[in-house]
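Listing S7. Sequence submitted for prediction.
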Amino acid sequence: MRFWDSSALVALFVRESRSAEVLALLQEDREILVSILARVEITSALWRRTRARQFASGEREIADDSFKRIASIWTEVGDFLETRGLAVALLAKYPLRTGDAIQLASAVQAANGNAAKLPFVTLDHDLAVAAMAEGFPVLP
């Protein structure tokens, strides 16, 4: 079981430089935990790329299909009020954006005091640094 940040999940749906790495991680372990924010962040990323005309013919449909398949098997983590409180505390410790603080707070909540046993999958450098400081093993 691994906690997946939206930045890593998007690379499963859209061809990026590190897509092969995250696909290999998914093939190793298909048990996915995500923040309650993941669905919104991924939808936002796909629409931003659509509006910027970054999809070739048919690529958006493939991305949507992949997104639906993966979303059907993931588990969303988070009692929003607890996640919000944790995120506010994390913002005092690390230079994170709002969404990243919520992502990390969700992972902290899921780890239930045992971050070392829950790998954290992210492609975001600042979030990776904060997750490591919280004791998570960070992939890739």
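Caption to Listing S7: primary sequence and predicted structure tokens for the chain studied. The mean pLDDT is 97. The first helix runs from residue 6 to 13.
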